[in-house]
């Protein structure tokens, strides 16, 4: 694979990962209501949310791997493991590393959900609310397409989608879906 192809793959997987993180976050927020979303029943919302989360995770892994082997990107393992420890664009790359670290924590706790219990899983899963804006800031700060019109529109759409989902979530009439059943003690 040529250096130019590696660079394009690194950029493309980063942008697509942000889109999938956005879909995952929006559906995760909307799915808490227990209502259908975009015509999908609750199980469909959960399935698409999980697919988007897994896709984002795999795209992030491919994004990082591609940029580590790309000589133009000049990333080394310190940049990948230690947030804000690298030399090149240390702050913006550090935000990407922080996103990777948060993704790993959310994935591991998701895989261990049944062993950890719902309360612990949910508490750790709140990291997702912080992960998305950190990933967005990473992309805006270190992305080479940030000034392009298509990227500005894409970012605006993702921000709007998340803001609308958060506004709906924070409404007083938002009812959260609970799995608890009321048992009659007659």
From TrEMBL:
The keyword Membrane applies. It is found in: Membrane. The chain crosses the membrane at residues 12-31, 43-69, 89-112, 124-143, 149-172. This is Sulfoxide reductase heme-binding subunit YedZ. Its main location: membrane. It comes from Williamsia maris. Residues 13-135 form the Ferric oxidoreductase domain. It is a multi-pass membrane protein. Pfam families: Ferric_reduct. Keywords: Membrane, Transmembrane, Transmembrane helix. The keyword Transmembrane helix applies.
């Amino acid at each position: 694979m040529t250096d130019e192809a590696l660079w394009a793959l690194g950029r493309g997987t980063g942008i697509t990962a942000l889109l999938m993180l956005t879909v995952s976050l929006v559906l995760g927020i909307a799915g808490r209501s227990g209502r259908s979303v975009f015509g999908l029943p609750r199980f469909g919302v959960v399935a698409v949310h999980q697919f988007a989360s897994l896709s984002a995770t795999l795209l992030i892994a491919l994004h990082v791997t591609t940029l580590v082997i790309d000589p133009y990107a000049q990333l080394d393992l310190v940049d990948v493991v230690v947030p804000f420890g690298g030399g090149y664009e240390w702050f913006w790359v550090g935000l990407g590393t922080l996103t990777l670290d948060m993704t790993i924590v959310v994935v591991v706790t998701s895989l261990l959900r049944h062993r950890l219990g719902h309360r612990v899983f949910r508490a750790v899963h709140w990291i997702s609310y912080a992960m998305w804006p950190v990933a967005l800031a990473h992309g805006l700060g270190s992305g080479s397409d940030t000034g392009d019109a298509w990227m500005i529109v894409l970012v605006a759409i993702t921000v709007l989608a998340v803001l609308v989902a958060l506004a709906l979530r924070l409404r007083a009439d938002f009812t959260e879906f609970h799995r608890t059943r009321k048992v009659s003690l007659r």
